[in-house]
Design brief:
This protein is α/β, with parallel strands linked by helices and 345 residues long. It folds into 2 domains: 7-131, EAL domain (TIM Barrel); 143-342, Hypothetical protein af1432, CATH 1.10.3210. Helix content is 52%, strand content 8%. The protein has a 6-stranded parallel β-sheet with strand order 1-2-3-4-5-6. Strand 2, helix 2 and strand 3 (54-57) form a beta-alpha-beta unit. Helix 5 (143-155) runs antiparallel to helix 9 (206-218). The longest helix has 18 residues, at 226-243. It is globular. The two termini are 13 Å apart.
């Protein structure tokens, strides 16, 4: 579920003294803000650390009563909403030692906050900053983004042929190289090296190749984190997996629905405005804007799984289709593994 990375687990006082049988490489012990640094608590944390666990201190605000924890922790989590100014983040990191700890900024909701925290010395970030558009609506697109948006529009035109795609890729040798490298990656387990677009289409399929070109193009946007591409790809696979329940739903359309679900974050424009500029299947537009139709039901499930909003998922409808929560969860994990394999995680 965590893509092979350790999970942050909130440890109660009871768990600090009686830890569950976790592998120390699989979890990070998170000491909650309400736990007091009594000698017996500090002794329990020191014991966990000796056992190989990484210790994170939650919601640190620079208060003196929290300082007794510092000799025993590896990661300090800063709740940036708890500060009057983000200048305080930089002051605390400077005062306590930028190199002594790994600093994690949590509740980072905008790219501006992300950049300020990064400048202040934070190493890790939690929040939805990368999947939300920056607040620059009304500004014109850069030439690079206009080119990529035009490429997406061309690729989603049902009249686009193999020859059209070859012509588009011939104008961007780097994109062609990255596409062939992806097709030749371990994720596809090709015995013979694929050296032409024609061969790649035969092996992978025209619709899938077009989707890869879209993903690789979005990955060229230098002002956006790579994680945004990985999340988009994971959504694409999850949508594709869930669409198998609906025989009448085209899997390739479900895939592109998930892949393009972050376009507003990539281009810093309202999604409705972006979709007006590209020629998408009407079912994709209805799903992404109104969350209606079968694709809308699928993408809503994807978003709610992603955010952990289990109570918002229409489990009653999945049950009618004889799909229990365990199956949905399994397809979700499968999509994470598939996306991670293509990104080399």
């Amino acid at each position: 579920m965590t893509g092979g990375k350790p999970a942050y687990i909130n440890f109660t006082e009871h768990w600090l003294h009686n830890p569950p049988p976790f592998n120390s490489n699989s979890v990070i012990v998170e000491v909650l803000e309400h736990i007091k640094p009594t000698p017996i608590i500090l002794e329990a944390i020191a014991k966990l650390r000796k056992q190989g666990f990484t210790i994170a201190l939650d919601d640190y605000l620079g208060e003196s009563f929290q300082d007794p924890f510092l000799p025993y922790v590896d990661i300090i989590k800063l709740d940036i909403l708890g500060f009057d100014s983000l200048d305080n983040v930089k002051s605390i990191i400077s005062e306590k030692g930028r190199e002594k700890f790994r600093w994690l900024a949590e509740k980072v909701e905008t790219r501006t906050e992300y950049e300020l925290c990064q400048e202040a010395g934070c190493n890790y970030f939690q929040g939805y900053f990368f999947s939300r558009p920056s607040n620059i609506y009304g500004t014109s697109l850069s030439s690079n983004k206009r080119i990529i948006l035009e490429l997406i529009r061309s690729l989603q035109d049902p009249k686009t042929t193999t020859e059209d795609l070859e012509k588009l890729l011939s104008q961007d040798p780097e994109l062609s190289f990255r596409l062939l490298r992806l097709v030749n990656s371990a994720a596809f387990s090709q015995q013979n090296k694929v050296e032409s677009l024609e061969r790649a289409i035969i092996l992978v399929g025209f619709d899938q190749i077009k989707a890869w070109v879209v993903m690789l193009s979005l990955g060229k946007l230098e002002d956006k984190p790579l994680e945004l591409c990985r999340q988009s790809l994971q959504r694409a696979y999850f949508c594709q997996n869930l669409s198998a329940v609906f025989p009448s739903t085209d899997k390739s359309i479900a895939f592109i629905t998930g892949l393009l679900s972050n376009l507003d974050a990539f281009f810093d424009m309202p999604l409705s405005q972006i979709l007006e500029k590209i020629n998408l299947h009407k079912d994709i537009n209805l799903a992404l804007i109104n969350k209606t139709g079968k694709l809308g039901f699928i993408i809503s499930t994807v978003f709610n799984m992603e955010k952990g909003h289990w109570h918002k998922i229409r489990w009653d409808l999945w049950k009618k289709m004889e799909v229990p929560p365990s199956i949905v969860e399994g397809l979700y994990l499968e999509s994470i593994k598939k996306a991670d394999s293509l990104f080399g995680y």
